[in-house]
Amino acid sequence: MNAHVSSLGDAALSLLPPVARFNLRIAPADLAAAAKAFGVDLPTRIGQGVHQGARSAWCLGPDEWLLHAPEAEQAAIVAAFDAIRPSAAHSLTVISDREVTYGLSGARATELLTTGCPIDLRRIAVGDAKRTVFDSAQVVLLRDGSQDWRLEVWRSFAPHVEALLTTAQHELAAGF
Amino acid sequence: MLLIHCPYCEDTLPELEFAYAGEAHIVRPQDPSALSDEEWRDFLFIRTNVKGVHAERWRHVNGCGRFFNALRDTVSDRFVTTYKAGEARPEPETLEAAE
Hints:
The complex is a heterodimer of chains A (176) and B (99). Chain A has 176 residues and is of the alpha+beta class. Chain A has helices spanning 31-38, 74-84, 109-114, 158-173, and strands at 6-8, 11-15, 20-26, 49-52, 55-61, 64-69, 90-94, 99-105, 129-134, 137-145, 148-154. In chain A, helix 1 (31-38) runs antiparallel to helix 2. The model of chain A has no long low-confidence stretch (mean pLDDT 93). In chain B, strand 4 and strand 5 (67-73) form a beta hairpin. Chains A and B meet through strand 9 of A and strand 2 of B.
């Protein structure tokens, strides 16, 4: 699952290699314990992202976080959270295989996303994330740079999203 | 498209991210088996169907995932305000003071 999808005109679309991906639900009062287990200071503002080394965390809801880490560290992270479960009740769900990640880059990458996203993408700061919709499929947008995005979508919706992005890419390249 | 303010995200976002979830402030009876059929019917199905400002639940399903409440005018479709689940329905006076 590391195939390059397409680079056309000013917007490149690629399928990114797998990562260890977790959905964490925990009471905000216990956040410090989770931050210690994951080794990253978890953000508290919805949308905010924190990046330390190869690990990243984004706050998606009042008590919900998306965690990313290298694929090889998945088992160690699950074990670290298991160790704090008696003192800090939480739910850590491994969603590494539930979703696929597309990378969008190039001078018109943001414009390419606007073909399916109803939100004002300029309001997402670099390093932050936003859960939203892409043509009715729920996606998480991760902003890595002013024109660099990652789009995470459930595996079953991926062909739909990819087909739309590829069509839009052709339209942008054709001068629309 | 409607723009709805999510009180948890503290952001105003398009309607597509939200789902409507019925009338707000309907308290589930503590002991359903003690109710008569008519009372249980009223709890399940009978709603006020307001013409004017209506308190209703919404869920930011494609966002933070939280349920919250909104006051919406059913005539003009204008959102008067939104507030977190569990909070009391804002009174007209406090809304005017806030504006």
